[in-house]
Amino acid sequence: MFRPPESRRAVHWAGVATAVTLVALGAVVPAAPAPAANPIVTHVYTADPAPLVVGNTMYVYAGRDEAPTGTNNFVMREWRVLCSTDAATWTDHGARANVGTFPWAGADAWASEVEPRNGRYYWYTSVNGRGPGWMDIGVAVGDSPLGPFTDAKGGPLVSDSTPNSSGLNIDPTVFTDDDGQAYLYWGGYWGVRAAKLKSNMVELDGPVVTPQGLTNFWEAPWMFKRNGLYYLMYAANDTGGCVTDSAYACQRYATATSPLGPWTHRGVVLDRVSSTTNHAGVVQFNGQWYIVYHNADAPGGGNFRRSVAVDLLHFNADGTMRKVVQTATGPPPNPGGPQGPPAGTNLAPSATATTSYVSPWESVAALHNGGVPANSADRSNLAYGNWPQQGTQWVEYTWPAARQVNRIATYWFDDDQGIDLPASCQVQYWNGSGYVPVPGQSSCPVAGNTYNVTTFGTVSTTRLRLAVTARSGLSTGLLEWLAYQP
Ligand code: FUB
């Protein structure tokens, strides 16, 4: 058996003693960040994630699945907060609310969501009240995204006695529109409901309505707005294009031009996951859209031992959502903010830039004007884009005399409309009689929100070309293209 040396053991036990003291004082000690992968944390089981971006941090509010192996029911008593500043590595900040936060409740810390308002954070929860009926919607409030949180109302916001409430009052999602009006959507057992919230965020403002057009709604609504369009994503469990076994669920979504609908069903965005339940949230962080959901993929996982995962979410030019690719790796790190280009001598500023096509309102000068993008949507230092061209387009650098080049870096432009990250790219050069691929080219990466580096054998040329192939139905663009001398 491995025994740590005395000194290391002393440090270890000193750490434990500190943690015990802090826990005794009521503080929550964050776990060390988990390595980037899906599920995002595996030291506890986590479910029903609700993402929220505040400043440079993505917070994910999630329940904790505590069911022992073989238990066929939810055992959920607390809600935890997971945090990331790059959407790839995550730190568990522990339980920040639990069933005991609501003195009128007794069990079942089911799905929840946090909504900010006037510097306070309102945590809407599904919880089993001790009154008549089963599940209620509670609301706690805190002065920071990590709390501490206390009951904000002294009783349920929604219960079985609320007129026209759902057959199962769970899974709240709160959305605040640009005019400050907040809306609560919730419901399970095929019964979706909505109501306005008063500006105090703890009272319904007017009647509970039954939204129309949410085809095959089962549970887990999530509402957001993008480019003036309202989106409502939800779990459905029909066998007509969603799942083949109605014990499972997919995420369907609908769009509307006003926050209470009527909604137009748009299809499936997230296929069945490995757990029977499917619960997800959508958020934009550092210029990139993400979907946060749960599955049963952690070691020892199952339908009542679920874990939160994060993946990229992409939109088509017409605002529809592309089907999510569920990964085991999770998204690439997206720390946001200007990162600075890779080191080296960049020959691009001394070149003349040309292209097969540039949109009249964009500029090929963007390629080599030395801008340092904060993210792929940052056009503050000009952007090159070729919308509405599709297929393969090219950009080119020409020097008056031959230059030696062996590396490029691209910072792709993605306006989340017609311009998206490319499907692929290839570096080519003029060999005196035609354009040919540079020799020994490494992969040509197409990640957003970062510099992508492609290396190759040194070429001596007056013309370097980057051929860029768009994803179907989309165009491409660049914020910066750097070409390095060896
Ligand atoms: O986690 C308990 C329940 O399972 C949630 O409230 C539902 O959305 C489903 O994920």
From TrEMBL:
| CDD domains listed in its UniProt record | GH43_Xsa43E-like
- The organism of origin for this protein: Micromonospora echinospora (Micromonospora purpurea)
According to its UniProt entry, one GO biological process term is: xylan catabolic process
Which residue ranges have biased composition labelled Pro residues?
Answer: 330-341
Q: What residues correspond to the site Important for catalytic activity, responsible for pKa modulation of the active site Glu and correct orientation of both the proton donor and substrate? A: 171
Q: Which residues form the active site?
A: 48, 219
Record keywords, A-Z? Carbohydrate metabolism, Glycosidase, Hydrolase, Polysaccharide degradation, Xylan degradation
Q: Which PROSITE patterns match?
A: TAT (PS51318)
Pfam families given in the database record: Glyco_hydro_43
Question: What is the similarity comment for this entry?
Answer: Belongs to the glycosyl hydrolase 43 family.
Q: Name one GO molecular function term.
A: hydrolase activity, hydrolyzing O-glycosyl compounds
Against Gene3D superfamilies, the record matches this protein to: Galactose-binding domain-like, Glycosyl hydrolase domain, family 43
User: What is this protein's name?
Assistant: Glycosyl hydrolases family 43
Q: Where is this region: Disordered?
A: 325-351
